[in-house]
Design brief:
Distance between the termini: 30 Å
CATH superfamily of the largest domain: Naphthalene 1,2-dioxygenase Alpha Subunit, Chain A, domain 1
Bound molecules: FE2/S2 (inorganic) cluster, fe (ii) ion
CATH topology of the largest domain: Naphthalene 1,2-dioxygenase Alpha Subunit, Chain A, domain 1
Shape: globular
CATH architecture of the largest domain: Alpha-Beta Complex
Strand content: 35-45%
Order of helices and strands: EEEEEEEEEEEEHHHEEEEEEHHE
Number of domains: 2
Helix content: 10-25%
Radius of gyration: 22 Å
Structural class: alpha+beta
Number of helices: 5
Number of strands: 19
């Protein structure tokens, strides 16, 4: 492992926006305990530890628009200053570290690095999540697995044929086409299952004998943010769109060997239909919670705290995207560790094809 395990100067997803209502929410990301609350200063992120006796501030509540510690009632505002001591003047020394917070794409993002570099424009585009013409279902799971294993999982979707076989296995798998390319620091992968009958997932949605192409394209962005675009088209006619969905797979490291996984599925069919919502929610719960997660956790138990790439893994052509992503992230972490941190965009710019 590098001396520094995570990129700090970047936005991590802390929560879905609807997770933070009247009560504060505490969560550890990149080993930093953080509390986020909605107060009179808007959305506030603070270190989740009271400077008095170090109780998590997330155990308290929002009072008069500021955060009140559950233990002795000191209150802290959005600047991290103590603004109320129930028994006297607020002590000047009672200060809490402030984390920049942004609400975007229906998610709450926290910047863990230099506050002065916290520009919400660096958050990659997941605009489809708030498109009113679409139906979006979100979810969350916690995995006892390193976030980099989750990135590997998301940047190599050939696993759907096996891990999610009951939903997504395709007879076209032996003919799978795949390619990897890069735009700026974003790594793209596309896999196409050409000319096969619909996988079990489409039962009841599509004629079981119809021949289709299914393409899944992933865009990985620093540090661990994946957009997945799935398209069903007529065979050999990528422009002949039949149906599809976009999904977000936003992974946030919690500590070595554990991560938060925020996922969202957005569709352009069945909008406003709660039964379809429920079907998607159930698939997400099973797919990520009962299929991906146990694989990642079992893998973690074998890899332990070792660097997977230093274990001399067998490399398959389909690993191209995952390896590219790991290298880009490792380079960014190293640059940051050396103090050369470029405030490079988390969003993509230009780039070129690296593998077809
Ligand atoms: S521990 Fe927070 S007020 Fe005492
Ligand atoms: Fe999966």
């Amino acid at each position: 492992m590098s001396a520094q395990a995570y990129l700090r100067n970047c936005w991590y997803v802390f929560a879905w926006a609807d997770e933070i209502g009247a009560a504060p929410l505490g969560r550890t990301i990149i080993e930093l305990p953080i509390v986020v609350y909605r107060g009179k200063d808007g959305l506030v992120g603070l270190e989740d530890m009271c400077p008095h006796r170090f109780v998590p501030l997330s155990r308290g509540g929002v009072a008069d628009g500021v955060l009140e510690c559950a233990y002795h009632g000191l209150r802290f505002d959005g600047s991290g200053r103590c603004v109320l001591n129930p028994l006297g003047d607020p002590p000047e020394a009672a200060r809490v570290r402030v984390y920049p917070v942004a609400e975007r794409h229906d998610a709450i993002w926290v910047w863990t690095g230099e506050p002065g570099q916290a520009d919400p424009e660096l958050i990659p585009d997941f605009g489809f999540l708030t498109d009113p013409a679409r139906a979006t279902v979100t979810g969350y799971t916690y995995a006892h697995a390193d976030y980099q294993l989750a990135i590997d999982n998301l940047t190599d979707l050939t696993h759907v044929q096996f891990v999610h076989r009951d939903y997504q296995a395709s007879e076209a798998y032996p003919r799978l086409e795949h390619r990897t390319w890069q735009e700026g620091e974003d790594v793209f992968r596309a896999i196409t299952f050409p000319n096969g009958r619909p996988a079990p997932f489409f039962a009841g949605i599509m004629d079981a004998e119809k021949q289709i192409d299914v393409t899944m394209e992933t865009r990985w962005s620093v540090p661990s943010l994946v957009k997945l675009t799935a398209r069903v088209t007529e065979p050999a006619k990528p422009e002949a769109y039949l149906m599809g969905n976009d999904s977000a797979h936003l992974v946030t490291p919690e500590r070595p060997g554990a991560c938060h996984y925020f996922y969202a599925h957005s569709r352009d069919y069945g909008v406003g239909d709660p039964e379809v919502d429920e079907r998607v929610r159930e698939w997400q719960r099973i797919g990520f919670g009962e299929q991906d997660k146990p694989i990642l956790e079992a893998q973690q138990a074998r890899v332990r705290d070792r660097d997977l790439l230093k274990m001399r893994p067998v490399i398959l052509p389909t690993d191209a995207g995952g390896i590219r992503a790991r290298r880009i992230l490792a380079k960014r972490i190293l640059e940051e560790d050396r103090g050369a941190a470029p405030a490079a965009s988390q969003a993509s710019v230009d780039g070129g094809l690296i593998d077809r």
